[in-house]
Give the backbone structure.
Amino acid sequence: MAIQRREQWSGRLGFVLAAVGSAVGLGNMWRFSYLTAENGGAAFVLLYVAMTALIGLPVLLAEFTVGRGARKSPIQALVHFGGTAWRPLGALFVASGFLILSYYSVIAGWTLRYSLVALVQGFGPQAAERFGEVATGWDAFGFHLGFMAITIAIVAGGVRKGIERTALIVMPTLFVVVAGIALYAVTLDGAAAGYRYYLQTDFGKLLSFEVLHQATGQAFFSLSLGMGAMLTFASYLSREHHLPNESLVVGGADFGVAFVAGLMVFPLIFALGLSQEVGESTVGALFITLPTAFGEMGMAGRVVGFVFFVALLVGALTSALSLLEVVVSSAIDAFGWPRMRAALVAGALIALLGVPSAWSTDILGVFDGIANNVLLITGALVLSIFVGWFMPDPMAEVSAGAEGVRWFFLWRTLLRFVVPIVLGVILVLGLPDTFVSIASLF
Ligand code: PHE
């Protein structure tokens, strides 16, 4: 058998931007802001940061360690370190990638559509009614297919020429755009009310399990954890990389963009007095209220609206690349397929699985709930147990390239005890809600 050299990132910047590209996506620009506004404002932000530091970063470092150590796609990486008993965990990762990308791409399709609307005709006052047309049926399916086609084409291009190159161009642009709109928003009349709504502090909310559950699920989704995306990206790294530093940079950038995105969204909404409409649906703030706001702002609204939805689109795109890469790299390793075939077959199946989400936002919501509350948390839980208790020598793997670091012992302790206990409790207590949401479909 011919041994093919595994592809590698061109260097640190390429890897970090690709990983940040995976992390920064719809979760940052859309879900983080409304979760914060609904769940105690600044208090929620603190809880989120705490969960990210205590649970998220250790798991991120664990994924990096397994991926770089094995230099294989998730299933084979787990088998490499743990034997075939761990194959099901890898399979769970791949299944999660399938499911998440299938609905994520439907939402991304809406942003593709809105970018084009802003460019071609601007937003009219009837944005709310239009959302009904845009969000479901053949319309939604068409744009979902369009988005999948772009994703497939880039992943087929390879790690360096496809994924890395896209991240190098798109991510810096995205940072500038989000910061730029947030600064512009400061000048708007309703800005102060928007900030107040976003960050008004209610520590009382932190006492509810629901809020803890949301903060944890969001931390995992936002950092792309629990389904092997970060593991797969790290498998294209060499051993000189300082994994703890890379984890901190990725975690910090992910939080930074999420936080600033809230500073951009709420002033825009409040400037036009549309605040009553925010709470109505989870997608409401982004896809109904904001276009209405842009529509009322004349030419400025059209320009800001276009830039805004393009930022959202490219954020979603770099995340989608990592989701597809998990499935594609697994297919390449398992079946020996060329990358092009793997990307086409996996992409086509995922596009098909998107059909229910394209026809019903309720189904989309349930898929999202299952992914966040069950799949990602289970994946991260089992992975932390694996690295904490079963992987042969995780300390040697993690410290390659990071020889001076003294707190790996703390990392391993978190993975052994704190992460599994917290995630186990959250998983079990959260199951009833998930069942209720599934049952509500019937
Ligand atoms: N992190 C991405 C976001 O915030 C979503 C994602 C989840 C991407 C899991 C890859 C894996 O939008």
Summary: The mean pLDDT is 91. The pocket of phenylalanine is lined by residues 22-23, 25-28, 100, 221-222, 224, 227, 229, 319, 322-323 (CB under 6 Å).
